[in-house]
Amino acid sequence: MYTTPPYVKLLIATLIALTASLILNEIDSNKQTDVDVKDYADKMQIEGYVVSKRIGEVWISDEPVSMRGMFTGFFTSNYGGSTTIVTIHENAEDKKMLRNLKINQKVRVYYDHLLESYPGRTSAYYIEIIE
Predict the structure, then answer these.
(1) How far is residue 62's CA from residue 42's CA, in Å, rounded to a whole number?
(2) Would you call 30 exposed, middle or buried from its count of C-beta atoms within 10 A (0-12, 13-18, 19+)?
(3) For the segment 74-107, what is each residue's pLDDT rounded down to a tens digit?
(4) Could you tell me which CATH class the domain 37-129 is placed in?
(5) Which DSSP category does 115 fall into?
(6) Cα-Cα end-to-end distance for the chain
(7) What phi and psi values does residue 120 have, to the nearest 5 degrees?
(8) Which of 65, 104, 64, 60 is CA-nearest to residue 86?
(9) What percent of the chain has pLDDT over 90?
(10) How far apart are the C-alpha atoms of 9 and 80, rounded to whole Å?
């Protein structure tokens, strides 16, 4: 009689847990928060296109990126033009604002400071999707 090795059961349990986690996070990430942009009128703003999404940050550039540019930019950390790395500010109301962003989507970022490194870095209070 054939018995299932223990690692197969562990693998199946891990896949089920991972799938459930992804499904629950996706359901949660589709929730939109009602934020009045007027609340951020005193903040500085930058507009651009999302050219890269990484863990806990997005990269904003003044021009959209091609498929080739996404691939080479990921390895070289150079997406051309003026690129800014945006993270979530610790006082932001929506801590999951980066989840709904897509590559080459035009956005407006509300922030209070910009680190003048290369590439520049900032933390966003709010990110508005411009259609």
Answers:
(1) 22
(2) exposed
(3) 666 666 668 888 888 888 888 888 888 888 889 9
(4) mainly beta
(5) B
(6) 62
(7) -65, 155
(8) 60
(9) 2
(10) 47
Cβ distance 108 to 131 under 8 Å?
no
Q: Where are the domains of the chain?
A: 37-129
CB 92 within 8 A of CB 124: yes
Give the C-alpha distances (Å, rounded to integers) separating 50 from 18, 65, 68, 78, 109: 27, 8, 15, 13, 11
Model pTM? Answer: 0.65
Q: Which two tokens stand for residue 11?
A: 């693998």
In this structure, the chain runs to a length of 131
- Residue 38 is predicted with a pLDDT of 61
